[in-house]
Amino acid sequence: MKAVQILMDDELIRGVDREAKRTRSDRSKLIRAVLEKHLAEVRRKQREEQHVRGYQKHPPDRDEAAAWEAIQTWPEE
Length: 77
Hints:
With 77 residues, the protein is mainly α. Helix content is 70%, strand content 0%. The protein contains three helices and no strands. It is elongated.
């Protein structure tokens, strides 16, 4: 790992320290976890947007799914 220096205001540092203490962690671990979660969410949203753009560019053909709909079965209720 590499050391990174960042600037935060006092209120943010106090909040980070409180949360680190509450979770029995430390600043570095907490900040890493938050950044990893944020980046994972950014990647998820990018994939979702890419998926939507793909369907907008190439909408599904109604006949394409018709064959599968004809043979699908649903459980009895």
